[in-house]
Amino acid sequence: MGTRKRGTLPKPRLHKRGHHSLRIDGREFVLGKPGSRMAVERYNGILAAWVENGETLPEGFTLGVKKVEAKTPLVTIQPTGGIAIAGLLATTLAEGETVSCGRKPRKHA
């Protein structure tokens, strides 16, 4: 690997798994898929901190990645009488019938 000239900005490199990575001050940062908004925002955030601190990263610098929370379903289906799917499945299994999802049913030992 070559060295970067003083005064030039670090450039992201393409990882063999298809994402951009950026190495600054011996630390490797994964930016994301090339051209994605997330990759551009991470790159700009890292460079802003790097330039503000005199071309070195501040001590304890992190990207501050947000954790994705589980989303609630947009549509909830409530039965309006009749047999619910869980009840139908329980009844079918209680009667000893085989339930399959498009495959041949297997015999269990």
Explain what you see.
The chain starts with 12 loop residues before the first strand and ends in a 15-residue tail after the last helix. The relative contact order is 0.08. It has a three-stranded antiparallel β-sheet, with helices on one face. A hairpin with a 5-residue loop joins strand 1 and strand 2. It contains two helices and three strands; from the N terminus they run E-E-E-H-H. The protein has a domain at 13-52. By secondary structure, it is of the alpha+beta class. Helices cover 24% and strands 12% of the residues.
Protein topology:
Elements: E1 13-14, E2 20-24, E3 27-32, H1 37-52, H2 85-94
Antiparallel strand pairs: 1-2, 2-3
Name the features.
109 residues, alpha+beta, elongated
Biggest pleated sheet: 3 strands, antiparallel
The secondary-structure element order is EEEHH
Distance between the termini: 59 Å
**CA-atom Rg in angstroms:** 27 Å
Identify low-pLDDT runs: none
Q: Helix/strand-derived class?
A: alpha+beta
Shape: elongated
Q: How confident overall, as mean pLDDT?
A: 75
Q: Using DSSP, what is the number of strands?
A: 3
Percent helix, as a range, is 10-25%
Beta fraction: 5-15%
